[in-house]
Design brief:
By secondary structure, the protein is of the alpha+beta class. The protein contains ten helices and ten strands. Helices cover 35% and strands 21% of the residues. The longest helix has 18 residues.
Length: 330
């Protein structure tokens, strides 16, 4: 992205709010003749929202709308509907956050069946809010905006499209750069790739984990259910959770202890037994440099790179799942 791009500097969610309002304002009745191409682009966005496929204009737009003690990023009035737009870039939206906005509108007198909730997210997150009626991700937006790249001659619009395309470029760098050169965005693209291809379980979480050493990008998943853990003897007195986790260039086996239920000596025994099992199956399975005793502990790990990650993940998944028949504790 060139260094004259407005959105290279205006990177906050408030700046993105401003772009959304600017774009959609061209669909207001009094503005539709000012720039017909932008108006049609704005209407194309609106038509993707449930119940609004035939909407012809926007009556009102409110930015940072407050009702009661709740603030809504953007609120639209379209036909008989109030449309909540929850806008996120780096942070994550939750179902409770979106539901609280809807509840606040209901409390103010808006009928529930006249409220539509939209989640607008240009940077991927692992969690997709179930309370949103429509989710716009970057791919959805670029599919619409790219139709207008050659006919909308607005620096604001062109800069925003370039800004979104730059995110795509950075996330796809995992395909061409060695793991040692990955940072936030390439890991996001890599994790999304692992989930879409089914290399990791659907029971997953990913994101940035801070720590005193600078933090790391993490993707964790649970190959075995709680019942399967109980069946092999890893009941709640030995461990609370048991999972695989990618931490930068490592694939680690992680175990957690709920100290209200787990005995320290039993947790240590379980951790050692799991390590012995994995090392027997994978001779290059290594212990961490420091074996701390904490809520979350690393049992051991293997490394991967940009060429062998699929085989290494499959190996760890298979070793984990084979515990159902090849491992019995204590």
């Amino acid at each position: 992205m060139n260094d004259t791009n407005l959105f290279g500097y205006a990177t906050s969610e408030l700046s993105q709010d401003a772009f959304i309002c600017w774009l959609l304002s061209h669909a207001k009745t009094n503005n539709q003749n000012k720039n017909p191409a932008i108006t049609q682009c704005a209407l194309d966005v609106i038509h993707e929202i449930p119940q609004l496929s035939k909407a012809t204009d926007i009556s009102d737009i409110w930015r940072q709308f407050s009702t009661g003690n709740v603030r809504i990023d953007i609120l639209l009035k379209i036909d008989n509907y109030k449309v909540i737009i929850e806008d996120k870039i780096g942070s994550a939206a939750t179902d409770s956050q979106i539901q609280s906005q809807k509840n606040a509108l209901i409390a103010s007198g808006v009928p529930a069946n006249q409220i539509i909730c939209v989640f607008y997210k240009t940077v991927p997150q692992c969690y997709r809010p179930k309370t949103a009626d429509k989710i716009f991700n970057r791919a959805d937006l670029l599919k619409i905006f790219n139709k207008y790249k050659t006919i909308i001659h607005s620096d604001i619009f062109i800069d925003y499209v370039e800004y979104l395309e730059n995110f795509d470029h950075e996330e796809n760098l995992y395909k061409t750069l060695p793991v040692s050169q990955w940072w936030g965005a390439p890991y996001m693209g890599f994790f999304e790739h692992l989930i879409k291809t089914g290399l990791v379980s659907k029971q997953n979480w990913w994101g940035y984990v801070p720590n005193p050493n600078g933090g790391f990008m993490c993707l964790s998943w649970h190959p075995l259910s709680y019942n399967e853990l109980d069946n092999i003897g890893l009941t709640e007195e030995y461990c609370d959770e048991f999972k695989l986790q990618i931490e930068n260039d490592k694939i680690a086996v992680k175990i957690s202890a709920d100290f209200g239920k787990c005995d320290k000596a039993k947790v240590i025994r379980a951790r050692q037994a799991i390590f012995d099992y994995f090392q027997k199956c994978i001779p290059y399975f290594k212990k961490p440099q420091r074996r701390v005793f904490a809520n979350w502990m690393t049992v051991g790990y293997i490394r991967y790179d940009e060429n062998n990650y699929a085989n290494q993940i499959k190996l760890m998944n298979a070793t984990f799942i084979q515990m159902k028949t090849n491992f019995k504790f204590p």
